[in-house]
Amino acid sequence: MPRPSGSPERRLAVLLSHFHPWCQPSRTIPGVVASAECLGTAAAAEAETEGSLSTWPCAGGEKGESSGGGDCVFCNIVAGTAQAFKLYEDDMCLCILDTKPLTSGHSLIIPKSHYPSLQTTPPTVLAAICSKLPLLGTAIMKATQCDAFNVLINNGEKAGQVIFHTHVHIIPRSKDDNLWSSETYSRNPISHGQETKLLVSSIKEIISSSPKD
């Protein structure tokens, strides 16, 4: 696949998750490869309408309600009013292909209820999502014949979040995919000075004073 243009920061920020109803959803997809033909149709249709889509807002509340009004593409997919390539589904979450993938098999795990951020997503829902990462990551990795994958969450606008409905990216990786590496940025050893000690104390104080689940 072509290398995403721009800086590493830009490549991280462009983990967009727009979905378009060009293909019928599949309730049971044994492997990512099974969606290749339909994905090609979706990609062709998307190319014809490039630039015609704006960011999908999520307008729902913070208690798990559907955003309603057709505003949230993920809520619409869950409700069946928008279509996507479904890889896995249970009572709590849904795994679908990202239709603007960074690599083949780039997928998203989304909760079926609407939560705009990690902070508003109940621990039980996050636990359900995380518990499926080994299963889904391994299946996607094997189907795409990759030997690794990244797990990524963009939480908040400044972190590159575009659709404000909690979602986790699974991005298959291979040696020559030309995406970022673990050494994209220069890194310096942590300081053991007063500033770091104050930071640690501040974080621990906030944690200890936070409501317990």
Mind sketching the topology for me?
Elements: H1 8-13, H2 36-48, H3 73-79, E1 86-89, E2 93-97, E3 107-111, H4 123-131, H5 133-143, E4 148-152, E5 168-173, H6 194-209
Antiparallel strand pairs: 1-2, 2-3, 3-5, 4-5
Condensed summary:
The chain has 213 residues and is α+β, with helices and mostly antiparallel strands. It has a domain at 73-176: HIT-like (HIT family, subunit A). The protein has 6 helices and 5 strands.
Numbering strands along the chain, what is their spatial order in the largest sheet?
A: 1-2-3-5-4
Give the CATH topology of the domain at 73-176: HIT family, subunit A
- The CATH homologous superfamily of the domain at 73-176 corresponds to HIT-like
Average pLDDT works out at 75
- CATH class of the domain at 73-176 reads Alpha Beta
Secondary-structure element series: HHHEEEHHEEH
Global morphology: globular
Strand content: 5-15%
What is the helix content?
25-40%
Whole-angstrom Rg = 19 Å
Number of helices: 6
Helix- and strand-based class? alpha+beta
Q: Report low-confidence residues grouped into runs of 5 or more.
A: 1-69
CATH architecture of the domain at 73-176: 2-Layer Sandwich
Q: What is the quaternary state of this protein? A: single chain
The total of beta strands comes to 5
Kindly report how far apart the N and C termini lie.
43 Å
The biggest beta sheet, please? 5 strands, antiparallel
